[in-house]
Design a protein that fits this description.
The chain is an alpha/beta fold. The protein contains 12 helices and 9 strands. Helix 2 packs parallel to helix 3.
């Protein structure tokens, strides 16, 4: 469809991709996000959805106060994030002001939902996200639906768009911020990049797996030696014991959207990516800009899902998502 340079231009002191990435999940930004969502005139309700095949997923439904919503937005967080992540709350607040009903979905084993399902989360569990999206659409029948995701959530959002027509979802458009395209290349980038990114995700995943083991010891009897494995080895262990994939490469290929897979998109998609993303290689993105239903915006700076605009810690990405989705529906 198109490719365009981004209008995002942070002050010089904010141009480090690592500062951008770290600030995006900082406690100070968390406080800002909670305040912004409280200020949005809306009601919020925690819900547990039947996602099909006995799977239950939780999330938060938010409806603008004082008027009927004009559209429905599904928001998908990144790996080891949650419905309460700063970017999820900030995006929800902007969408509520624009008249959307918003559902912030927690993936399996995220946001304290470990008790809802016995099986472990993995990135090929697209069917249950499609099932949750269908349940959300049924909750607001007749409303046009959009979806947005960040990082791994962006990957899920784009795969949801690939499945939307076959699943009967009323999905009109998706937006993805720093979406993971090629899992194998992302693993390589994390292993060769600054060690603190790998340590951060390893710590959060180990803690999640330990919680799952405590809740379902009969199903997950792995020892602490497994939890001490490094990321690639731990992922390979998880693939062997908890998925139907024969090996790690097959698992990565299962949720990859690289190598022309997005050419088949029938739902229009907006993609925001930073050239200096330290987690996801950016060189693949120029290829997808030529696909019929993708509009790519490429920023020189922004880090991984950062796009922090200044000392206020407001984010360009959250505003970008709300504006792109609202504009698309108006058209």
């Amino acid at each position: 469809m198109s490719s365009a340079a981004s209008a995002f231009d942070p002050p010089r002191w904010l141009r480090s991709p690592h500062l951008q990435s770290v600030l995006a999940s900082s406690p100070l930004r968390g406080l800002r996000a909670r305040a912004r969502l409280r200020q949005a005139p809306a009601t919020h309700r925690a819900m547990v959805l039947d996602a099909g095949d006995g799977v239950r997923l939780q999330g938060v439904a938010s409806v603008p106060a004082g008027s009927a919503p004009q559209a429905l937005a599904l928001l998908l967080h990144g790996w080891e994030g949650s419905a309460e992540s700063s970017y999820m709350r900030l995006t929800a607040a902007r969408l509520l002001h624009a008249g959307f009903a918003v559902f912030r979905l927690d993936f399996r084993d995220h946001g304290g939902s470990h008790h809802l399902n016995e099986g472990l989360f993995h990135s090929n569990r697209l069917d249950e996200v499609v099932g949750a999206a269908a349940a959300i659409a049924r909750h607001w029948p007749g409303l046009p639906m959009v979806a947005a995701g960040f990082s791994l959530g962006g990957n899920f959002a784009l795969r949801l768009a690939l499945r939307a027509l076959d699943a009967g979802l009323p999905l009109a458009r998706v937006a993805a911020v720093c979406p993971l395209l090629d899992p194998a290349r992302t693993m390589d980038a994390m292993e060769t990049g600054p060690a603190f990114y790998m340590r951060y995700f390893e710590h959060k995943w180990r803690r999640s797996l330990a919680r799952k083991r405590a809740l379902f010891p009969h199903a997950h009897s792995f020892g602490d030696d497994v939890l001490r494995l490094r990321m690639r080895a731990l992922t390979a262990w998880m693939v062997k014991h908890n998925t139907g994939f024969p090996h790690l490469d097959a698992y990565f290929d299962g949720y990859s959207i690289a190598h022309d897979r997005l050419r088949a998109l029938q739902v229009p998609a907006d993609v925001l990516m930073a050239q200096d993303d330290p987690v996801i290689p950016a060189d693949e993105f120029q290829r997808i800009a030529g696909y019929p239903n993708i509009a790519l915006e490429l920023a020189a700076h922004g880090g991984h899902c950062g796009f922090i605009e200044g000392a206020s810690l407001d984010g360009y990405a959250e505003r970008w998502v709300a504006e792109r989705l609202a504009t698309a529906l108006r058209r």
